[in-house]
Amino acid sequence: MAPVPPGIRFLASFNRDQWYKAFTFALTFLLYTSFHLSRKPISIVKSELHKNCSHVMRAPTESSSGQQPVLHPELDCSWKPFDRNNYKQLLGAMDYSFLCAYAIGMYLSGIIGERLPIRLYLTVGMLTSGLFTCLFGLGYVYDIHSLGFYVFVQVANGLVQTTGWPSVVTCIGNWFGKGRRGLIMGLWNSHTSVGNILGSLIAGYYVSSNWGLSFIVPGVIIAAMGVICFLFLIEHPNDLKIACAQSSAPSSQKVHKNWNGVNGHKDLYLQYKPGAKTQSWDTELLLGQESIGVCVPVQQQQVVVVKSEAEPSPISFMRALRIPGVVEFSLCLLFAKLVSYTFLFWLPLYITKAAHLDAKKAGDLSTLFDVGGIVGGILAGVISDKMGKRATTCAVMLLLAAPTLYGFSMISQFGLGPTIGMLLVCGGLVNGPYALITTAVSADLGTHKSLKGNARALSTVTAIIDGTGSVGAAVGPLLAGLLSAQGWDQVFYMLMTADFLALLLLLRLVMKEHCSHRKRPGVAVELKEH
């Protein structure tokens, strides 16, 4: 008999539980990649909305010799109303309208999403986000030049895009335990950079010929992914247990689902009524904490309890704030995201001015910051898993980020090699805490033991943390724009101050982790409820 290929042996080593986990990991990765893919086109299309392309033409004369070229500003190819001298403010208004709507909507999104099925909530959000993304592109098709139209589309898109993050984090948190959550979510969080890269490529392909398609194509993609979400997303492993029990019943038997409540508990009973020629039998589910479940036939039973657990009720906003660590990590993320989004909006321009490079080279170099961010997020997850100390991991990276930012402010004195190194290191230290807090930390807090297994709280907790961080994302670029007029040094002083404040906000949690580790070395820290 021929030996089994190593690849087949590797695939056969996975049980059904692992396959479903891998599928959920990949699906949620692609779903949120499409969110960032649809956000990126605006940064690419800005250069097309306002261009220095006034045509130089000669006045029609019999002989053009000796004639001076005549400017025809009415032939300028910028897109109204962004052809004015205040185009920077107008373009900025679109950015801030999206970011502010996103920050405000995030607080509401988690509370709403906690009370609705994640699959349906996320599907509606993706379909409507696709609609508004396409609407922006249709402004080109239908020759729309109203600033109000584009601001409205950005505000609406910012609101509906808040459905994404709480939903996917809740789903991935339901499937993966705390054991290697930092590593898994560090890898999973790279969807942000992947979406940005794909969005840039798609928007860049169409921007010169028809910038409307730079929005329409990503809009269609996220809408299509919304349909895939509706068809295939499995919110929780328990959903498969019920599906397994139902599918194992013979087709000739009728299945009834009854809910009976006793003392706040709801038990799901599956009743199988055999036909005249079919032997009576039922299916009982062997439930495990980490397993999907195994269907086993049970002879001569009419009713079997498939699941018995307290029906979780949504938690209030104030109840979520009382979960230990939520306030500290939320405020820390505000300042960490302020730094990260300032780099996102201003890094290419800073490299152009400081390193005296053209826009294309500056843009290429700025992608190294994202690469460093991916590596930093993965390292932060691995280290925090190994140490069992999320706050300490974030604090150390924030402490190292401050001098790195100061060194980066002197980029004009470096050569190309040191600049590349600084971009990678700075990206890792700036985005590492940001990635860890928005993923593994949010999942840890949303499944805190004080919630007594109420997995529905994860959506609200995630929304509070990321919503607070989004406030910093809106404020950071605004402050950078104001301070850059006084010199780039002022911008970096602001960024270093933000890093220092983020570090201060974590000191109490760091001390708790340190004290708990001394008492129980090697044990992950669980914070006590306030």
From TrEMBL:
Pfam families: MFS_1 (PF07690)
InterPro entries in the record: MFS, MFS_dom, MFS_trans_sf, SLC37A1_2, Sugar_P_transporter
PROSITE patterns given in the database record: MFS
Protein origin, superkingdom: Eukaryota
GO cellular component, one term: endoplasmic reticulum membrane
Gene Ontology biological process terms in this record: phosphate ion transmembrane transport
Protein keywords: Membrane, Sugar transport, Transmembrane, Transmembrane helix, Transport
Substrates-to-products reaction catalysed: D-glucose 6-phosphate(in) + phosphate(out) = D-glucose 6-phosphate(out) + phosphate(in)
GO molecular function term, any single one: glucose 6-phosphate:phosphate antiporter activity
Membrane topology: Multi-pass membrane protein
Transmembrane annotation, as ranges: 90-112, 118-142, 187-207, 213-234, 326-347, 367-384, 396-416, 422-445, 457-479, 491-510
Compartment list: Membrane
Start and end residues of each Major facilitator superfamily (MFS) profile domain: 27-514
Keyword RNA-binding: no
Broad class of the protein's primary localization: membrane
Family: Belongs to the major facilitator superfamily. Organophosphate:Pi antiporter (OPA) (TC 2.A.1.4) family.
Protein name, as recorded: Solute carrier family 37 member 1
